[in-house]
Amino acid sequence: MSQTSSATPRALQPFHLAFPVTSLENARAFYGDLLGCAEGRSSPEWVDFDFFGHQLVAHLSPEEAGHKSVNQVDGDNVPVRHFGVVLTMDDWHALAEKLRAAGTTFIIEPHIRFKGEVGEQATMFFLDPCGNALEFKAFADISRLFAK
């Protein structure tokens, strides 16, 4: 399988991520109701979500859910295990407000990281009800997503 150079435009393919949750009911409420992710197939042990065009699969595995370690990134304790989506700046601000209105506790408040640097980005971190860390970010200039 060949990898296309980052300089060559290509169609974005959806990713697939399977992750552990402590409760499918809580996962449905959070990913489906709060984040607005449509539910796909499911079983008594797992449920698919359309996570901004990507396939996210919550698997019931309470002993594996949650995050345990952090690393320092621009002065923040960033959960090592996390996932999320890069949004447009407008969508990022709208999601931050929606989460605030829903009473979400942020583990890293919405803010701009790497101000004035190549990697400047809006970021926020919060936990789902099963303890999994999510990061949503945005760039004023998306072409800088992979800039060094």
TrEMBL record:
Alphabetical list of CDD domains matching this protein: VOC_like (cd08357)
SUPFAM superfamilies with a match to the protein in the record: Glyoxalase/Bleomycin resistance protein/Dihydroxybiphenyl dioxygenase
Domain VOC: 13-139
Superkingdom of the organism of origin: Bacteria
InterPro entries: Glyas_Bleomycin-R_OHBP_Dase, Glyas_Fos-R_dOase_dom, VOC_core
Pfam families: Glyoxalase (PF00903)
Designated name of the protein: VOC domain-containing protein
Organism the protein comes from: Paraburkholderia diazotrophica
